[in-house]
Design brief:
By secondary structure, the chain is mainly alpha-helical. It has helices at about 5-20, 25-30, 35-40, 50-60, 65-70.
Amino acid sequence: MECSTPTNFGSYLKDKRIEKGLNIVQLSETSGMSAAQISRIENGKRGVPKPENIKSLALALEVPYEELMRQAGYL
């Protein structure tokens, strides 16, 4: 299973978050993930999140789960 690089996924996540008009704290509150964890993902300092975390982010960002999974390199 080929995974996206953390930096590429992080940039994608940040773009989606900004596109939705959310700051990191707002995304944290709606996704249930910590703001620090989201920040590390966006900055490429943390690996690609697990599928269950991607699902939380997809719901919070109102983005199809499959789209985020594809960006993360799972699909």
